[in-house]
Amino acid sequence: MAEFTSVGRSATDRASRYGSQLVKHFTHKDLEGSWEDGRGFVRFSGGVAEFEASSDALIMRVVSSSEEDVARLRDVVERHLVRFGTRDELSVTWDSGSEN
């Protein structure tokens, strides 16, 4: 089975805060996920979103079995992050995606 991946980056010095907030938000909607030591994940019906906080950015990786689901996951993760980070004017830059 093919696996599609896309990696996004959002420049922020509060990456751990935003990663934790994303995981907490989605797990409150009864999705499986966790956040620990600057890394986390959320398992959606269409795939997985992984988060990693660095000193200057939140790195997001979405993985799914279809290009369409990767696009949906990118959209969901980005919309929530941008909304949570309105004060910091966060944005996300995604790679073009790839099949593994």
Fold and architecture overview:
- It is built from two helices and seven strands.
- Helix content is 31%, strand content 38%.
- It starts with a strand and ends with a strand.
- With 100 residues, the protein is an alpha+beta fold.
- The protein is globular, with a radius of gyration of 12 Å.
- The longest helix has 18 residues, at 67-84.
- Strands 1, 2, 3, 4, 5, 6 and 7 form a seven-stranded antiparallel sheet that branches.
For the structure shown, list the relevant keywords.
38% strand; alpha+beta; 2 helices; 100 residues
Task: Give the helices and strands as they follow along the chain.
Answer: EHEEEEHEE
Number of helices: 2
Shape label: globular
Classify the helix fraction into a percent range: 25-40%
- End-to-end CA span: 10 Å
| Strand percent estimate | 35-45%
The main sheet comes to: 7 strands, antiparallel
Class per helix and strand makeup: alpha+beta
Global Rg: 12 Å
